[in-house]
Amino acid sequence: PLRTVLGRFGFRPALASLISLLTLIGDLAGAGLLVWTLTASEFGRLSDELDDGLDRTRDFLTGSLPVSGEQLDRWTRQALDAAGRATPDPVAGAQTALEVTGAVLLGLVLLFFLLKDGRQMWGWTLDRVAAERRTLWARAGRVGWHTLSSYTRGTVFIAGVDALGIGLALV
Fold first, then answer.
1. Which end of the chain is more exposed for a tag (fewer CB within 10 A), N or C?
2. Which of 58, 53, 50 lies closest to 74, judged by CA?
3. Within 13 Å of residue 129, how many CA atoms lie on the same side as its CB?
4. What is the pLDDT of residue 141?
5. Degrees (nearest 5) of the Cα angle 100, 116, 99?
6. Residue whose C-alpha is closest to residue 107's, from 46, 5, 25
7. Angle 111-116-119 (CA atoms, 0-180°, nearest 5)?
8. pTM, entire model
């Protein structure tokens, strides 16, 4: 929608698409920064509460099950050692991070071109369909796009109502 509005104000398609894409990235980064800012100060308290909860769980297990504290400590060490052995090596982790970064960048490039040239891409696709089927494909594409757009708008609306209700309840 932003790209369409910018196009109506005379922005060239490439610039309108770039502004729309940068707005999306800014919105996502802003939301992430807001969540980080609101939760980062709670990490210390969360760590203390986690330690307290683990101590209570340990007391419950040793008090209600025929398990000694030493057995529980040994099992915990074994589980932590097994988890340490199961973690991937740093090279595999770096490779995965690089793959994810590449996929995100590729997705952004594709989104830019879909925003900029989406109608021409659809026209090019329809040109590849047999002439007697082109009208059917065009109609199916319009109906599919309308359905996807309506679903997305509905999902965003519901998420907004949920966020507002949860936010008000938390306040």
1. C
2. 58
3. 15
4. 94
5. 10
6. 25
7. 100
8. 0.62
